[in-house]
Amino acid sequence: MDIFERRVANLGPLGSYAHQADGYFMFPKLEGEISNRMIFRGKEMLVWSLNNYLGLANHPEVREVDAQAAKEWGLAYPMGARMMSGQTKYHEQLERELAAFVGKEDAFLLNFGYQGMISIIDSLVDRKDVIVYDYEAHACIIDGVRLHLGKRFVYPHNNIENLKIQLERARKITNETGGGILVITEGVYGMTGDQGKLKEIVELKKEYDFRLLVDDAHGFGTMGKTGAGTHEEQGVMDGVDIYFGTFAKAMAGIGAFVATKANVVDFLRHNMRSQTFAKSLPMPFVIGSLKRLDLIRKHPELKENLWKIVNALQSGLREAGFNIGNTQSPVTPVILQGGIPEATQITVDLRVNHSIFCSIVTYPVVPKGVILLRLIPTAIHTMKDVEYTINAYKEVRKKLQDGVYANEVFDASVL
Fold it and tell me: Which of 149-184 are b and which e, b meaning 16 or more Cβ less than 10 Å from the residue's Cβ?
């Protein structure tokens, strides 16, 4: 059968809803300045779906530096991959400063987080090695693991006792192959907001011989005393062997980095195919990231403002009787019971009647019968935003419990 015919005949779990969902439930267009309030379909919305944790996206100093860097360098410089012709002193400076900030010897810049994580895994392990990873690992980790030619074992989310079982299995194999073990977890899980059990995993190193890779996309800039990440939050900065952070969230930019021992960074620098054969990160992103990192280090009030909103939102939701799971980070899931029809009606109700825009997740991302409303608080949200949202959620919950959404016929005219 022709490849195109086969794919068009089966558009996948999301693509099958594209006709009625695109532009509203999927691929919505938020317009205006990146902020707590933006325009959706001509109407102002209170937005809780952007990972602009520290409010740096439109920080005046950031905007000024971004504009000046674009004016001075353009988006083309430096041309070529870094190994060939794309190296600059600013790339090296950013790597040194990132490494120092997260407590590692050296760091290597990556063009994109998703692509970078895949390539880190692909570069570090071969068919003799075994990967052990958390069941709820991000898609970029899953895709990286799929490239692995050796054995891989998964353990239930944050289940340390089962992790021990998988490490035992891995050790038996590596004893025969002469390979090593790579454990992969996240610092903060982006859907549920709970932290990976880094401290407990690091403790297992005393019994098992493995290296630990932590994806801290949501923890970098938001967790720990200085914002260095979840490994700082849990007091295990030295125990995390390979630290991965992204600029797409707290830094409100583009790019990512991996930080570890200097000799390992040197290996990655010469062996990560996604960087060896890709154009260097353009100068405005590098200069802009230097400024963002400087603000994070010198202005702790950015993180303090974030956590004021986080604590108010999460404590308010709990006091109102909402289930927000076991979040230990800014990520705030509100867990309700229902299916896709109810989730659809809730989405429309929140946007049309309450002017609230947030991410709504259903099966297969979460178990059947679960609706997850994910709120991402930021430093630029206000206490009024928090109070308004909690009251709106109370109304939505009552309608859900009264069966209103189950009995309503979906009004496609809103799309």
Answer: ebbbbbbebbeeeebeebbeebbebbeeeebbbbbb
Q: Does domain 60-298 have CATH number 3.40.50.10320?
A: no
Q: In the chain, what are the helix, strand and coil shares in percent, each to the nearest 5? A: 45, 15, 40
**N- to C-terminal Cα separation, the chain:** 35
Structure tokens at 9: 């005949």
What six digits make up the tokens of 338? 């229902």
pTM to 2 decimal places:
0.94
Q: Over the stretch 183-235, which tens digit does the pLDDT of each residue have?
A: 999 999 999 999 999 999 999 999 999 999 999 999 999 999 999 999 999 99
Contacts of 280 (CB under 8 A, 6+ apart): 78, 79, 80, 81, 82, 86, 87, 88, 91, 111
The sign of the torsion formed by the CA atoms of 12, 144, 270, 241 equals positive
Q: In one letter, which amino acid is 13?
A: P
Sign of CA dihedral 190, 193, 198, 204: negative
How is domain 3-53+301-414 classified at the architecture level of CATH? Alpha-Beta Complex (3.90)
Residues in the chain where the model's pLDDT stays below 50: none
Numbered ranges of CATH 3.40.640.10 in the chain: 60-298
Rounded Cα–Cα distance for residues 235 and 214 (Å): 14
Element (H, E) at 356: strand 356-357
- Tokens of residue 370, six digits: 């679960």
Q: What is the structure's pLDDT at 286? A: 97
For the record, the structure tokens of 308 come out as: 């004021």
What does the alpha-carbon distance between residue 339 and residue 347 come to, in Å, rounded to a whole number?
Answer: 12
Q: Where in the chain is the domain with CATH 3.90.1150.10?
A: 3-53+301-414
Q: Is the dihedral of CA 345, 346, 351, 355 positive or negative?
A: positive
Tokens describing residue 374: 């994910």
